[in-house]
Amino acid sequence: MYQIYPRSFADGNGDGVGDLRGIIDHVDDIAALGVDAVWLSPIYPSPMHDFGYDVADYCNIDPVFGTLDDFDEMLAVLHECNLRLLLDWVPNHTSSKHPWFIESRSSIDSPRRDWYVWRDARPDGSPPTNWMSMFKGVPAWTPDGHTGQSYLHLFLAEQPDLNWANPEVENAMHHTLRFWLDRGVDGFRSDVVNLIGKGTDVDDLSEELAAVPLLATDRPRGHELLRRIRSLLDSYPQRPMMVGEVYLLSAGESASYVGTPDRPELHLSFDFRAVHVRWDAAQIHRTIAAIQNDFSEPRWPTWVLSNHDQPRHRSRYGSDAHARAAAVLSLTMRGTPFLYAGEELGLTDGEVPPDRVVDPNGRDGCRAPIPWTPDGDADTGHGWATAPWLPFPTNASTHSFASQRDDPRSMLGLYRRLLALRAATPALRSGALDLAPLDGDLLRYDRVSGDQRITVVVNCGTAATPWPDDLLTASVLAASGERIVVDGAPLDPLEAVVLGYE
After folding, report:
1. Opening angle at CA 379, ends 378 and 384, nearest 5
2. What are 253-303's pLDDT values in tens digits?
3. Nearest Cα to 40, choosing from 52, 48, 50?
4. Is 379 exposed, middle or buried (0-12, 13-18, 19+ CB in 10 A)?
């Protein structure tokens, strides 16, 4: 899966904001990378307080990105290149400018009043509960002077939470899925989907959990709702899939949202523990073991290192060598890898001066625009006709697409090789994973399918480490560095190698 943050991918009309036409112009480049599907962050009409995650109309395209005709053309071009398309679906909350909320707040007696979560303040005038917003550290309740009650919003005040305990809300949101499925969309990434289970179940939490209510919203109703969503998806001939953003970090929580074979829910559930792990052999080993245990057969995990909400892993880890080793790790892991556009170039975050900060939660750096050409500076050029909405990554000139396109030794070349190897190798696509005990800084695992065995070794340390004697008869299928044969030479610092056997 290949995640595109549309505002930052490519600008087709020269206004400094990426759009659908820009994506259409680069579909061949995406296909050449070797991915199977594209996930687009939100492209719906929105006031853009949270850059599309505050949806004002689930069944249209924001003019900044284009039109429904542009969307249909993009979908057709993607399908012509054998690429599937996932849209970002935002079920927990709408924009405060959505017609549903405008009607809901119009009167306590509004037919859509309980489409959202409204409460009276406490007798002392304080918010109805102690829940805090995930953004800006303010209460998750905003008083509405028109009706005297407060409404719940786990994110911005401009993002009121829907009440999924109301069957009319569920039916209306099912309609939004059908709208896009009827146009031929192949599936959805579902934003903070575990939150829909709370409905109006929002009583006081412990002080610790009240500060991060996102981690305290695992409710049975959420699983029931997802089973019905799964039934809707399964009714379509293209067999669409849904991957859920389930930001629950305790053992087993994220995995529970795929359900069971007889009661299926999500097809895939994001597990974000890998995003929060430092580059440390012991931490990486523990995280792999935990995720594989939680998503043991018949469940299937995901593997995510970067996205639009987290600093890019090239910036977190500190060097190209780290990022190259991480590419080998993520693309040989059991599970579906989700790549964030630009990680295949080894991009760092952008440096955003205070006067150019626009995101309400400090995520501008990882959303820096993609540099298509090396000619430019922090603010202009790099294949964008107009200075884009955010500064470019700090390594834009050296790590642009054009700088790497024809260089097989580049980061882009490495990603292409690894994706091609994965596509051609059953053990890497769908095989079991056998994780060896950690040996110092040496991480090692086998991927196995039938008689096929693939071994991956990663030296996570900053010193050379001896080559394992039992691997001397293996063949090098891919490597993060220059190694092309097994010669027994020590593994270089941060070297990662994929091995096969005759």
Report:
1. 115
2. 999 999 999 999 999 999 999 999 999 999 999 999 999 999 999 999 999
3. 52
4. middle
pLDDT computed for residue 405 by the predictor: 97
When pLDDT is cut at 50, 70 and 90, the band that residue 156 belongs to is very high
- Domains assigned to the chain: 432-500 (2.60.40.1180)
Query: By three-state DSSP, how is residue 137 classified?
Result: coil
Helices and strands: H and E segment counts in the chain? 14, 18
Q: Given a cut of 90, is residue 249 above it in pLDDT? A: no
- Element spanning 223, H or E: helix 220-234
480 half-sphere exposure, CB direction, 13 A CA radius: 28
Q: Are 37 and 186 in contact (CB under 8 A)?
A: yes
Q: How far apart are CA 308 and CA 6, in angstroms?
A: 11
Write b or e for each residue in 91-100: b if 16 or more Cβ atoms lie within 10 A of its Cβ, otherwise e: bbbbbbbbeb
Helix axes 220-234 and 167-182, enclosed angle (nearest 10): 30
Q: CB of 393 within 8 A of CB of 345?
A: no
Cis upstream peptide for 298 (omega within 30°): yes
Q: Which of the 8 DSSP states describes residue 134?
A: S
Q: Indicate whether this model's pTM tops 0.90.
A: yes
Given 191, 294, 364, 441, which residue is catalytic? 191
- From the candidates 161, 245, 441, 492, give the one annotated as an active-site residue: 245
Q: Does residue 416 come out as left (phi exceeding 0), alpha (psi in the -120 to 50 range) or beta? A: alpha
Percent of the chain at pLDDT above 90? 97
Q: For this structure, is 191 an active site residue? A: yes
d(CA 306, CA 439): 27
Q: Residue 186 catalytic?
A: no
